[in-house]
Write a structure and sequence with these properties.
- It is a single chain.
- 40% of the residues lie in helices and 31% in strands.
- The protein contains three helices and six strands; from the N terminus they run H-E-E-E-E-H-E-E-H.
């Protein structure tokens, strides 16, 4: 396992959060929020200096609602600084993404904070997307 992935997994364990190792530099975490849940993937680069977060499985979007969701997606991408929403038209679902610089000696707390930030933003934006889908 990559050093950053190993340290993040250990830190998460200490926070009573189980990170599943999928590959040497890839972790997966499931998290519940008010109204739903999200699966967050952490992909670490080979130098253990950057992490890419991908939040999936929180909103399915029917094809006939893509246009309505694009409008809200653009508003949310303007409102939130760090998390960007992307509509995966192939799978009909929204993704939340974040890329950050990490330090090996503090990557556990940094990644935990990045995860909490992603969950908070998704939870905040969730009703806006659901309104667009069900309107």
């Amino acid at each position: 396992m990559g050093m950053a992935a190993k340290m993040v997994a250990q830190f998460f364990e200490g926070q009573n959060t189980k990170a599943q190792e999928l590959e040497e530099t890839l972790l997966r975490i499931g998290w519940n929020f008010e109204g739903g849940s999200i699966t967050i993937f952490f992909q670490f680069d080979e130098e253990d200096a950057h992490v890419h977060l991908e939040g999936l499985d929180f909103i399915k979007v029917p094809e006939d609602k893509f246009d309505a969701v694009y409008k809200v997606l653009n508003e949310c991408n303007d409102d939130y600084n760090h998390i960007k929403f992307v509509l995966d038209t192939e799978h009909g679902e929204l993704n939340a993404r974040d890329d950050d610089v990490i330090q090996l000696d503090s990557c556990g707390p940094e990644c935990f904070e990045l995860m909490l930030r992603m969950v908070k933003v998704v939870e905040d934006a969730y009703p806006r997307f659901m309104k667009a889908i069900w309107a």
